[in-house]
Specification:
Keywords: Cell membrane, Cell shape, Membrane, Transmembrane, Transmembrane helix. It comes from Lactiplantibacillus nangangensis. This protein is an all-alpha fold and 171 residues long. The protein has one domain. 76% of the residues lie in helices and 0% in strands. The termini are close together.
Length: 171
């Protein structure tokens, strides 16, 4: 019997893709107030939830994350390859640590913050090597990474229980 999660996951992923861009556009004045910039990562959150809450591990999350990364690069960054590599890398890392973790709110929160930091550092390094940006590491940490973690932490706290309930009900 196929899980309803196989249908809900891609719908939620595309909704998260849409909301990442739409909410960033709507709240651009607050999220990108010079010199600070906060990047929304709803797609990353949805993917991490999928890895940890799919008990049967039957979702093709790796393939979906690569596709979502391609769409994200195409529509939002204009630099191909960044999220196509970053999102599947996060899926791989999460699957490696999943057996070792006791799943609860704080654990998933810490996993999300660590993966958020990995993705942002990966994007920063990619852009630095590609000469897209020229900022130093301290500026990145203070003006981008810190605000990004703060905004996404608040969103995670708000969405944790509804998303968890959705996954548990669908499965």
């Amino acid at each position: 019997m196929k899980s309803r999660l196989r249908i809900i996951f891609p719908i939620g992923l595309f909704l998260a893709l849409f909301l990442d861009g739409s909410l960033s556009n709507v709240f651009a004045g607050s999220l990108f107030k010079y010199p600070y910039s906060s990047v929304l990562h709803l797609v990353l959150m949805w993917i991490i939830f999928a890895v940890f809450l799919d008990d049967r591990d039957e979702l093709p999350i790796l393939a979906w994350s690569a596709f979502a990364g391609l769409v994200f690069d195409w529509f939002y960054t204009g630099v191909f390859g960044v999220y196509v590599v970053a999102l599947p890398l996060i899926v791989y890392l999460c699957r490696q640590i999943k057996p070792w973790l006791d799943l609860n709110f704080l654990t998933l929160l810490m996993v999300y913050i660590i993966n958020l930091t990995i993705v942002e550092a990966f994007v920063y390094t990619w852009y630095l090597m590609s000469k897209v940006i020229t900022s130093n590491l301290a500026d990145f940490a203070v003006y981008t990474l810190g605000p990004t973690i703060a905004v996404n932490l608040a969103i995670f706290v708000i969405l944790y229980y509804p998303m968890r309930q959705l996954y548990l009900r669908v499965e």
